[in-house]
Amino acid sequence: MQETGSISIHTENIFPIIKKFLYSDHEIFLRELVSNAVDATQKLKSLAQLGEYQGEAGELKVTVSVDKEKRTITISDRGIGMTAEEIKKYINQIAFSGATEFVEKYKDKDASAKDQIIGQFGLGFYSAFMVAKEVEIFSKSYKAGSEAARWICDGSTEFTLETTDKPERGTDVVLHVAEDSDEFLETPRLRGILDKYCKFLPIPIEFDGEVINQTQPLWTKQPADLKDEDYVQFYQTLYPFSEPPLFWIHLNVDYPFNLTGILYFPKVKDELQLQRNKIQLYSRQVFITDEVKDVVPEFLMLLHGVLDSPDIPLNVSRSFLQADANVRKINQYVTKKVADKLAEIFRKDRAGYEQKWSDIGLFVKYGMLSDEKFYDRAKDFALLQNVDGKFSTINEYRELVQANQQDKNGQTVLLYTTDPEAQHAYVVAAQDRGYDVLKLDGPLDAHFIGQLEQKLEKTTFKRVDSETISKLIEKDETTESVLSDEEKTKLQELFAQAISNPAMQVQVEALSPQDAPVIITLPEFMRRMKDMQRVGGGGGMAMFGSLPDSYTVSVNANSAVAQRVLKLEGDAAAKLAKQAFDLALLAQGMLKGEALTQFVKRSAELLAAE
């Protein structure tokens, strides 16, 4: 028996269109053909289990081989195989149902059109023509008495179908590689593709004399059957050069959608490492993509691991996701499971959770900032750490400081530092008043502070160096100045002249004699806007990054230095005022270059004069 004919579509040549539009990466052909072979093998196993195939199954595997001299790649399986009629049905007809409409719709459009094609055509097999100038199929059905069939097509719409000799059940797909696809005749190139896409397929894949895949990856097993070292070892398989993970979540749900997988919490530290290609998406153990932004929310992109779901819709090339109802449900489910895991660890082992906070704090804050539902769950296990290293939940901390750090308007003021060393003098001044100071030095903390102020009733945050100590938390009591109004005016003028900088607004303030003689502050609002703009505040934040700084220089009227400046005349008064101002700059880490050199020289002169 031999038959020739035309593939049933009404266009001159669909294959260049397939090659141009349907697949963004030519290497996909091997994934598609191996997946088809695995499907055929799985079907035979199912038929055998149901008693519908009673023959000898033998060794069930898929073999990929390359012959560089003959310029062929062969994908062989011992699955259910096909009869000649089935080849006509599944290869010549099904693949092209609706193909005419597709060609007419997309032939004149750019490659982005492929995003609109959602698995309508069953074109996986035809990905072979992206790299082959001719494709042969040799197949023999599992059905008793079946004749083997050979199908051949040269990339036009013409095909030949005939009987052939094939002793064993199954299918061989032979690709005669085109001249512009020589790379796929190289063994290392094919091995790399198989390792990327087929590493966890459920049927053994043999290439170059060895099996290259794990047929039962960890996520397909029951958590009760696994130990911690199994999870860590699997993580090293996925990410060979990474540090061990902190902990993990094993996902296994079959309603209202199917989803399995393992998500790992890596060590993130205090860098915003948005590594968006660390979660791998599979469908029935076939690698699909590492771009999962539609499946998991943005903040979960910091996680590593594997998700496997047959319920995620894909386009014909299986390379892009569609945000349909199942995807949204999976997104919400994963978010909830992550929150539940964190809450469980916090509840069962708070000390261990606190030890991990430096690694997971950024992740939790990112989630709270970007996902309202996650915030609602995370607010009970998000931690604040003070400069002494003590951890508290948000509510615990408010209760801790509320009595002592409430201002005259009933606002609870939470003090913080972004750099405990550089702002040490301000931290000590606050602690001397009995205040507690938080350490909020992460890249997202400026945004996190703003969020907490919106969420927490009658609560505000102030950086310890944003005001003088008496103004950080304003009380009803006032400190009297030992200077007269005339002396205060004279002192203000002396310092303004000595500083001679329009960005420094000098004011004289009655502080405690124990406070610093001069304190430089940048208002909380302006400082915070600049911090937010530096880490990507977006929108209106950009204007604050370009505004010139405007600092307040508070001269302590009750300090011994202020009184001494008033007693001196001319250059001596200006010299001492400048020295006191430079000390304040030094405390803020703002004294550099020539100004620092002059300060050191002046300090030596003053010491010698004493």
From TrEMBL:
Q: Which UniProt keywords apply?
A: ATP-binding, Chaperone, Cytoplasm, Nucleotide-binding, Stress response
**Per UniProt, what is one Pfam family of this protein?**
HATPase_c_3
Supply the NCBIfam families for this chain: PRK05218.1
PROSITE patterns attached to this UniProt entry: HSP90
Q: Which InterPro entries match?
A: HATPase_C_sf, Heat_shock_protein_90_CS, HSP90_C, Hsp90_fam, Hsp90_N, Ribosomal_Su5_D2-typ_SF
> What family does this chain come from, according to its entry?
Belongs to the heat shock protein 90 family.
Q: Which residues of this UniProt protein bind ATP?
A: 32, 36, 77, 82, 97-98, 120-125, 171, 318
- Any GO molecular function: ATP hydrolysis activity
Q: What is this protein called?
A: Chaperone protein HtpG
| Designated gene of the protein | htpG
